[in-house]
Design goal:
Layout: H1 2-7, E1 12-20, H2 30-35, E2 42-46, E3 58-61, E4 72-78, E5 82-93, E6 96-99, E7 103-112, E8 118-123, H3 130-139, E9 145-150, H4 160-165, E10 170-176, E11 188-191, E12 202-206, E13 215-225, E14 231-233, E15 237-246, E16 252-257, H5 264-273, E17 279-284, H6 294-299, E18 304-310, E19 322-325, E20 336-340, E21 349-360, E22 364-367, E23 371-380, E24 383-392, H7 399-408, E25 413-419, H8 429-434, E26 439-445, E27 457-460, E28 471-476, E29 493-498, E30 501-506, H9 507-513
Parallel strand pairs: 8-10, 16-18, 24-26
Antiparallel strand pairs: 1-4, 2-3, 5-6, 5-7, 7-8, 7-12, 9-12, 10-11, 13-14, 13-15, 15-16, 15-20, 17-20, 18-19, 21-22, 21-23, 23-24, 23-28, 25-28, 26-27, 29-30
Length: 516
């Protein structure tokens, strides 16, 4: 049964009982086997107590002394579970139940993980709350919830009698989301186990339009398939599997990179992003299935998540490239594999400069004195032309770290700090996303006895942060006048453009503060 389960996507897990058709012909009788000339092909199969796989057992193939009645039958216990497939908002229109956009009764499609059963029905209001309504609306592609209730209190969308007439029973009950839930997967629920009536079915009215959130890349790795057909992370060579997340944390996706517009330069930058020196060669799984075949990708339901990746010849970093996220026209066979040069580059990312910035005018940013969003420039030690410019994430950031950061920028200390998700006065989350300013420094940790930033640790160019987690600082200034930029002192300014971001730099500030 374990062998059958492995071959069939682990549908079965362990043997419940078995026998031969002479003692039980409920499945196929001896006479039917004989009529169809189904003779024994495996005999004397023997497995020791510690066998973990069918390959650990012995057997005689095409050599037997058995009758049809000695043919084995098995009853295996299923390991399948109900899982979520799709949901939508529905109402009665023209006498039929139809999907209705941003308002309606929640109807959900579930399926067993082995594909053996499907169910379509309602969401019960037991334990449902405002946070669950917000997360549900965001999962359905809207900004949030306006209001919600059950069909017993409001049957404007679908009435209780219609639900009963169409036998739309509850399929999800006890859905509960905490206040900080960012994704439907952060909530708990009972699937196909309920004590609800049709009148307890939930309806939602969601805020029209899609969320401002956008898909963003949060990681990637190379994968292969082992001898047992299971995927594993395979170091410097394999099929590219990318992890995406909505910038508001509401959804996550894993999938492949399509070869449309992909080229040698993109392959080099991709390998460097993965921590290697560059690309040896690359291709798609249709031309080479050494790492993972098209059928493997389809079996694991790995769809394309990144398409039309384009890196100009001037691109020095993967962040300089453009691509379409969650929008593709690719088949599994177009999924990219990479063979990267073993080992990482001798160079390491290092901090070159840092400062506090704010938004001015139309999508431009400038240094902002003693208060603003922290923006940091990094460079590789062995190739200073490889640079990155972005934000500092608030993961593990604390008051002591904020104090040292302000001091490293030339100020007496910190008065206040936070992230742009809670206050976007200096640069908003949407502006950071529009300018492509992602996190370059994460997990900054300073020991309690640290007296400067040199004693602190951080992850450079390795993060799991959204734009909303970008840190801003309000630093204590010894000279109050220094907080204001002197507009008359124009000779001290230079205008720069870095990766499409326009910067107005005060040379006095640069000389004074860039030694982070």
């Amino acid at each position: 049964c374990v062998m059958i389960g492995l071959i069939m996507k682990q549908w079965y897990q362990r043997r419940v009982r078995g026998g031969n058709v002479a003692s039980n012909d409920a499945y196929i009788s001896r006479s039917v086997l004989e009529e169809h000339e189904l003779d024994t092909v495996v005999d004397q199969m023997y497995c020791l107590y510690d066998a973990r796989n069918i390959s650990d057992c012995s057997a005689d193939l095409m050599d037997h002394d058995c009758s049809a009645g000695e043919s084995v039958w098995l009853e295996c216990e299923s390991n399948a579970e109900w899982q979520f497939v799709h949901a939508g908002l529905y109402r009665i229109q023209d006498g039929s139940i139809q999907e209705s956009g941003s308002a309606g009764v929640v109807l959900i499609n579930l399926a067993m993980s082995d594909g053996s059963q499907e169910a379509f029905g309602t969401l019960c209001d037991d334990r449902f709350n405002n946070d669950a309504a917000r997360v549900a609306c965001q999962h359905l592609g809207h900004r949030g919830a306006i209001r919600w209730g059950n069909v017993a209190s409001n049957d404007a969308y679908i009435s209780r009698s219609v639900l009963e007439e169409h036998e739309l029973d509850t399929v999800v009950d006890q859905m509960y989301c905490l206040y900080d839930a960012r994704n439907i997967s952060d909530c708990s629920a009972d699937l196909m186990d309920h004590d609800c009536s049709a009148g307890e079915s939930v309806w939602l009215e969601c805020e029209e339009g899609s969320s401002d959130a956008e898909w963003q890349v949060i990681g990637a790795h190379l994968y292969s398939v082992d001898d047992a057909g299971e995927p594993y992370e395979s170091g410097s060579a394999g099929v590219v599997i990318v992890n995406l997340e909505m910038s508001d944390g509401s959804q996550e996706a894993y999938g492949s990179l399509c070869d449309d517009r992909f080229n040698n330069h993109a392959a080099n930058l991709a390998c460097q992003y993965l921590g290697h020196e560059g690309a040896i060669r690359w291709g798609n799984v249709a031309s080479n299935d050494e790492y993972m075949s098209r059928s493997d990708l389809e079996r694991f339901e790995v769809d394309t998540v990144v398409d039309d990746m384009t890196c100009p010849e001037t691109a020095r970093n993967i962040t300089d490239c453009s691509s379409d996220l969650m929008d593709h026209d690719c088949s599994a066979g177009e999924s990219v594999w990479l063979e990267c040069e073993e080992g990482s580059s001798d160079g390491e990312w290092q901090v070159v400069s840092a400062g506090l910035y704010r938004t001015v005018g139309d999508m431009e940013i400038e240094p902002s004195g003693s208060a603003g969003v922290v923006l940091i420039e990094l460079a590789m030690t062995d190739d200073e032309s490889r640079r990155a410019f972005g934000t500092l994430c608030d993961d593990r950031f604390n008051n002591h770290t904020a104090q040292l950061a302000c001091q490293s920028l030339g100020y007496a200390g910190v008065t206040q700090w936070g992230n742009v998700g809670s206050m976007g006065e200096y640069i908003s989350r949407s502006v950071l996303e529009e300018l492509g300013l992602s996190t370059v420094v994460d997990e900054m940790t300073c020991p309690a006895d640290a007296t400067d930033m040199n004693s602190c640790d951080a992850d450079l160019m390795d993060h799991d942060c959204s734009a909303g987690e970008s840190v801003w600082l309000q630093c204590e200034n010894d000279d109050d006048d220094d907080d204001e930029i002197d507009d008359d002192d124009e000779e001290n300014y230079i205008d720069l453009e870095f990766g499409g971001v326009k910067l107005a730099l005060n040379l006095g500030n640069v000389r004074e503060r860039i030694h982070f």
